[in-house]
């Protein structure tokens, strides 16, 4: 007979690790399944100055490592596998992965989100050849070079500041006439002599055959085109939920985010969602961790109410 976990958590980012900690600490038989690298987007974040308590230059990888160790100390188990099929129709939920099949009384989906493409010409062709979506991963390749950043939110502004540690010049390209990021981060951008800003503009195309050599820009108000010579281009224009696996299995919104209530419950009893994959207004490490704690606590309540431990 297959082993039946109390809860299986899909995804090893802050939401998943927080859920694992709370579930295991409540003596639930807990497994976290991660298909790639634990930590998700947080593992590629250089600074976490807005995470409570992170006052000693805490980095994303450092925080994730502490979270994972803490969850493991309480008994959380970990598996590296990619889930390809889910069956939520029965009381016992089934997950089929590339390596094996898993069963659990409850499922917590914490699969996260991935960077959205900007959509300019040759973006995919030059991805990894000057076009990047992770400053922490690739900034050192552009030491003493010129780079551009596309976007105007917190991520774009924060990563622009980080890039100034390596690049000679950082040019932020934003389609609007003002940023959407936090005012405190904007102030740092405006006061950084290495950062230049081009408002009301979008990138139409990337230039270069084997490696990025520059960008073609278009002013959205005047229609005027211009060229910008850069060695690197970092794209931060939002994210898309990693939820394709659950299409037709649970309720999603038009953008593909999982719809839950405030207790992280989906429309399928025993299936919960937490973190960036969930429909919500704020996607930050702290809200992902909170989601995970709530999901695990309610998964425990669900088991207590729905299962007779003598027969299941």
Kindly give the count of domains.
2
Low-confidence stretches: none
Rg, Cα atoms, Å: 21 Å
The count of β-strands is 17
Number of helices: 6
The major β-sheet equals: 7 strands, mixed
- N-to-C order of helices and strands: EHEHEEEEEEHEHEHEEEEEEEH
Shape: elongated
Distance between the termini: 12 Å
Tell me the CATH superfamily of the largest domain. Answer: FAD/NAD(P)-binding domain
Assembly level: single chain
Q: Helix proportion of residues, in percent?
A: 10-25%
CATH topology of the largest domain: FAD/NAD(P)-binding domain
Q: Mind explaining what this structure looks like?
A:
- The protein has 312 residues and is of the alpha/beta class.
- It folds into 2 domains: 4-114 and 239-306, FAD/NAD(P)-binding domain (3-Layer(bba) Sandwich), CATH 3.50.50.60; 117-235, FAD/NAD(P)-binding domain (3-Layer(bba) Sandwich), CATH 3.50.50.
- It is 22% helix and 26% strand.
- It contains 6 helices and 17 strands.
- Strands 1, 2, 3, 4, 5, 6 and 17 form a 7-stranded mixed β-sheet that branches. It has a 5-stranded parallel β-sheet with strand order 8-15-9-10-11, with helices on one face.
- Strand 5 (93-97) and strand 6 form a beta hairpin.
- Helix 1 packs parallel to helix 2 (60-73), helix 1 runs parallel beside helix 6 (285-306) and helix 4 packs parallel to helix 5.
- The longest helix has 22 residues, at 285-306.
- The radius of gyration is 21 Å and the shape is elongated.
- It is an enzyme of class 1 (oxidoreductase).
- This is Thioredoxin reductase.
- Its cofactor is FAD.
- Residues 5-292 form the FAD/NAD(P)-binding domain.
